[in-house]
Amino acid sequence: MSSQQQQRELQPEQAAAAYEIKKHISVTAGPGSGKTTVLVERYLHILREQKLSIDQIVAITFTNRAANEMRERLRERLNHLLLTATGKERQRWLDYKRTLDGAVITTIHGFCARLLREFPVEARVDPQFILLDEHRAAMLLEAVVEEVLTEFISSGHVEISRLTLGVGRGKLAAALAQLYRDVRGQGLSLNDLSLKTATSHATEEEHARALVELGLSMDDFLALRRTTPAARANNAEVTAGWQKLRPLIHTIPKPETLADYCRTV
Questions:
Q1: Rounded Cα gap, residues 236 and 240, in angstroms
Q2: What is the pTM of this model?
Q3: Cα dihedral angle (224, 229, 230, 233), rounded to 10 degrees?
Q4: Domains of the chain, each with CATH number or no CATH
């Protein structure tokens, strides 16, 4: 099958995505609409036009299953191309087929793991590391958080003990684990987090200004007219909670008031 025959099989929108390689392309379509077909043909078109080697193209998928499917689709298309190709062109497609197993067609996790294994010294990691699945990673993180909490409480750390009492051990552990995920997801180090924490309401004056702004915003919110019984009941609940919280947050919580503060918040 020639490239022209394959092109005729694609819809105009698909062909535009498959054969335009001079600019970035975004394809949005539902399941079964031919996205993988377009991606496979685009991959082959890049090989055809740019004369690159297989390992110079990176294809990222969401799942390992999708990566395997794309690799098999490419293998099928290469087989079709070899049926009609001759001479040097046939040799080139045959070389692509032989090196297809080494193609970088993988998930983002697989691609990153490959880079780390290729450059372990620069990345400062053990080249024999293993990639944890999401479930095992979550379990390991929860176990570490629980272990650290136990160490702090056992050593008599007042702030952590009060915080645990106020929030509850389970909620505190979950919040700390989520905080870790958020920080790591943003690429922040512990030093970065410490600096950000130190500059957040770093003075009592800034804390006081923030409370004034919060008070004005809450006053405006509570003053809004409610037209349904459910909305009025909700407003009454929020009003009661705000009246209880307002005097408590006007002072920066200390270890002895931290539990009450957390329970109220």
A1: 6
A2: 0.55
A3: 70
A4: 3-123 (3.40.50.300), 134-198 (no CATH), 207-264 (no CATH)
Contacts of 41 (CB under 8 A, 6+ apart): 6, 7, 10, 14, 18, 19, 77
Instruction: Locate the DSSP E strands across 108-234.
Output: none
Instruction: Render pLDDT for 179-200 as a digit per residue (tens, 0 to 9).
Output: 888 888 888 888 888 888 777 7
Strand partners, 208: none
pLDDT tens readout for residues 198-244: 777 667 788 888 889 999 999 999 999 888 999 999 999 999 988 88
User: For the chain, percent helix, then strand, then coil, each to nearest 5?
Assistant: 70, 5, 25
Can you tell me the distance from the alpha carbon of 49 to that of 239, in angstroms, rounded to the nearest whole number?
Answer: 67
Q: How far, in Å, CA of 195 to CA of 189, rounded?
A: 10
Q: What is the mean pLDDT of each run of 10 residues along the chain (265 residues)?
A: 52 86 85 86 90 89 89 92 90 92 90 91 89 86 92 88 83 89 86 82 79 91 90 91 83 70 67
Tokens of 131: 């990639």
